[in-house]
Each structure stands twice: as structure tokens, then as C-alpha cells.
Specification:
35% strand, five-stranded antiparallel beta sheet, alpha+beta, 147 residues, 19% helix, 5 strands, Thiol Ester Dehydrase, Chain A, 4 helices
Length: 147
Amino acid sequence: MIDRSFIGHEFAPVTAEVEKGRLRFFAKATGNADPVYSDEAAAAAAGYPSLPAPPTFLFCLEMDRDDPMDFLDLLKVDLGRVLHGEQSFTYRAPVCAGDRITFRSRITDIYDKKNGALEFIVMDTECRNEKGEHVADMRRSIVVRNG
């Protein structure tokens, strides 16, 4: 069983820059053909200061940290038993190329189902830009298979 005392554990903040090339690549890789994500003129016409981040991009940007799975080591969870359960995003302001986003993550819940056969780790991440503006919140649930 995962140690429930880690509920509330906060990780060191991580900051990453939003780059145009990565935004274009991500939009293309995810099949998002809306020109607002790849064409500066289309982005400007839509009212953005630069290319906006496509949906779910922030999760990938957060994974740029030195060890994106450090929480598994902390919780003594074997990566081979892990499934990505759920992901949600709440956007509060646009994130655009040139922004520097700081991610502050913490474990908000650990619980089990099926008499411990499945354990769930819930992590919440607050995202702020270089101006300190709260631009998004992310939540992910990781499923750990036991037995």
C-alpha cells in the first residue's frame, strides 16, 4: 500500500518556456489543424499575442522536468505497475509562445479500490506565467496495479 502520509506533499516548482516550434509540432502531432496553433497571422487575428498552446500541451511541457516520474520513486511505486488514469485541465488565461510557465504540483489524494488491488494517486498542478498570473490548473490520476 502506498503511504498515505504523502497526501499534501508538494514538489519543487519547475519552470519551462513555451516555444513556437514545439507548439506547432504538438498541434501537428495531435492532429489539430486549426491554423491558430501554427500560423502567427491566424493567432493574431484570433486575438492572441503569439501562437497559443493547444489543449493538453501544458502536461507535455511539465514533463520536461529533469525526472518527470520522481513522484514514483518518492512513493516507492514500480513504473511497470502504473497506468495513466485520468487528466483534466482548467484554463484561466491563454498560454502563448514566449510565456514562461511555472508548475507547482502536489499530491492531493491517495486511495484504493477493489480491496487494494488498485491504488490511485491524484496530483494537482497550478500553472502560473512569468507575470504571476494563474493561467491553468491540471489534475491527473495515476492508477497503480497491485498483485
